[in-house]
């Protein structure tokens, strides 16, 4: 440990650094983050500082996408901010899934037992996230856990029926999912790194799902009869 120094809670090893290869999928990275947190450590995201030689090598080996990916990930981090400001960011990001006639939301805690902002405000907020994505007559399928708040479920469905003509809302219970996914038209989607209860209190990711991940999730739902 003699070659190790600590500054601002960052550990730097003179001999080298730890790397993960190949580039991990988002859901794997979130599981790694959960384990790190359970052990009492913090696993923040920070942008690497590149030397000119580093830039040249990455451009040769990976192309410009290596740097474009870093910019996109930073833009997809929900800010630690007041509830409304954080909500506006999330709404803007989720709106990229529109227009949708078939929206799937996989979120165990979509309808929390005790919303931190209260059931009424939370229900209105959640409906305001979903409604702009939908076309008239759209079908919304929510997959939640067995502790879902029935009152919030009903309130959100009521708000959506008022905001989107002809909308239908289906709610299914399953404890098979840990992560949170929003999938539009069973063809494109995003992964959301945290529940919306307490939005703005912590940073979390919203990132685009790879097509293979969308296909896997849709296939798993089909196996469950959804």
**Helix-strand sequence:** EEHHHEHEHEHEEEEH
- Order of strands across the widest beta sheet? 3-9-8-7-4-5-6
CATH A-level architecture of the largest domain = 2-Layer Sandwich
CATH class of the largest domain: Alpha Beta
Name the CATH homologous superfamily of the largest domain: Endonuclease Chain A
Helix content: 25-40%
How far is the first residue's CA from the last residue's CA?
Answer: 53 Å
Number of strands: 9
Question: Helical stretch count?
Answer: 7
Mean pLDDT over the full residue set: 79
Tell me the fraction of residues in β-strands, as a range. Answer: 15-25%
Runs in which pLDDT lies below 50 for 5 or more consecutive residues are 1-10, 69-75
Number of domains: 2
Q: Could you say which overall geometry the principal axes of the C-alpha atoms support?
A: globular
By secondary-structure content and strand pairing, the structural class works out as: alpha+beta
How large is the radius of gyration? Answer: 20 Å
Report the major sheet.
7 strands, mixed
CATH third-level topology of the largest domain? Endonuclease, Chain A
